[in-house]
Structures are given as C-alpha cells and as structure tokens.
Amino acid sequence: MSGSGYDGFPHEFSAIAEGIRTMEIRGAALIAVESARALKLLAGTGADLDMLEEAGRLLFNTRPTAISLENAVSSCLTGAGTPQEVAENADRFIGSAIEGKHLIGRYGAERIEDGGAYITHCNSSAALSVFKAAVDAGKRFDVFATETRPWRQGLITVRELAEMGIGTHFIVDSASRHIMGEMNIKGVFVGADTICSNGVVINKIGTSMLALAAHEARIPVYVCAESFKFSPETLHGKLVPIEERPISEVIEPGEVPDVTVHNPVFDATPSDYISAIITEKGVIPPEGAYDLIMRFFGGDERWTP
Ligand code: RI2
Fold it and tell me: How far is the CA of 8 from the centre of ligand 1 (A)?
C-alpha cells in the first residue's frame, strides 16, 4: 500500500501510516502514540468524522498483531462528536502513554537487584524504562540483549542500554538458555504487543522460547506493558492474528530455491511461564488480565472498524 492506499489523505498522515506498516516506526507503544498523533494531525486539517474513521481503518491495517494501535484509534474515535474531540482524545491518549511508561519503569525497577544480571528480548521501550528507572535509583547491573532475528531489534536495545551506562551484553537468540545458567541471570524483562484476557502474552517471536527456558531455570519472567496493550476482543473469543512479514527479512530471495520460508514475527507465551505483568496500573499476575480488561475497558462501547 505504499502511498497509493492513502489517496486523498494529507502527506503527514500517509507518512505515519506507511512508516508503521514498513516498521520504520515500530514498538507497540510508539505505533499507538503515532497513530493517535496521525488522527490529531488529520483532525487539524479540517477532516470530518467520516474521513477520520476511514483513517482509523487504514491505521488498523498497518500492523495486525499489536492491539495497542487498535486501542489507540478506538480511544481517539469512540464517543467523539467532532474532529476537535478526536484531537483532544488523541492528546489524552498520548499523555497517558508517556505517564504510563514512567510508572512501569518505577514499579519494575523494584525487581532489579543491585549487582544482578538480566535478559531482555527485542526492543521494548517499556522494558527499557524499567532498566532506566533502576539506573536512576542508583542500581548497577548487567543486561543481556538478544539479537532478535530476523529484524535484529537487539542492536537498537544494546545501543540504548550502553547509553544508560548499563553493563551491556549482546547474544544471539539461541544462546539465551546457555547464558541463563552461565551468567546467573536473575530475571527476564520483555515487552508485549497484545495481552489476552486469559493472560497469554503476544510478543516478538522468540519470547515464548525465552520464557520456556526461564521457566525451566526457575528465573522470573516479567512482561512490561501499558494497559492499552490488553485486548478486550479476546474476552469475546477473538484470536490474535500473528503477523507474517516478507521472507526477504529472513533470507536473500532465491538463496534457498524450492524451499518454503516462514517469517512469523510474534508468538504466544502461556501465562504459566509469566511471573508478573508490570503495568502502569500496578504489578499483576497474568491471571489478572481479565480483571484489568473488565475494569479499564468495560463493556463493548468501543469504536470498531
Ligand atoms: P514497546 C515490538 O514489536 C516488540 O515485540 C516489543 O516487545 C513490543 O513491540 C513492545 O514494544 P515490533 O514493533 O511498546 O518490534 O514496549 O514488531 O516499545
């Protein structure tokens, strides 16, 4: 949908939508915040509610797995009677996302021991906010970041960790279980794209293997996620689609002719392998997902495409 799918929309909006689709803009929180910003921008150009709702549908289709984007669009559009109200809802969402990340950092930093060593996967701004808050609290510790094939978001993570002055280590994904034993890992901190009503966590591919290895080693696994990553739709049985991205992210085209290449970019981690979910509403067990969804999303009064 490069460009042509956004005909009739201003360039600023199309650039954000296309940036999310191509992962130039990535991370479940950032794609949510940028979607809200895109709707606010559009509302400021004189777009009417019909055009804003069409914009919401276009944004919905950029990244199918992360509920954060859908919740952001719904938060902007539900109950809005004018474009100005959409813009105000967008500001409210963006402000709560910024505050939420700080609270997750504060609560999660309590689980960081001075002198400890931890593993993180992919590049989660929520998980990184925990490490940043622990540094600000004067704690010194090491973090092992996985490469996170195929997109290699771990390269972003190690740069951010090193900039915080944290003892930073880079490992390939398959080294995780070995490192847990060799380096006396005290905990695993990961983000989330979607959290289901039964406590299952959808996150970057490889998270479930990492959590399984940690479970075997009796190492706690913490999921760091804002409440807008919880999925009300899963309460009504909806399954979370696992995004498959181009195989060119995995292998050079034609490198293995006559071979089927797969590139699922998320997986599902069972609640049994998760010690706690660290949210801005507090630290909850995965089984608490149902209560959080009921308490903060309530009934079905949400904008849907
Ligand atoms: P924050 C990312 O997806 C990763 O799966 C990460 O764990 C999750 O979003 C949450 O990221 P992608 O955008 O919201 O790399 O914590 O596909 O930044």
Answer: 30
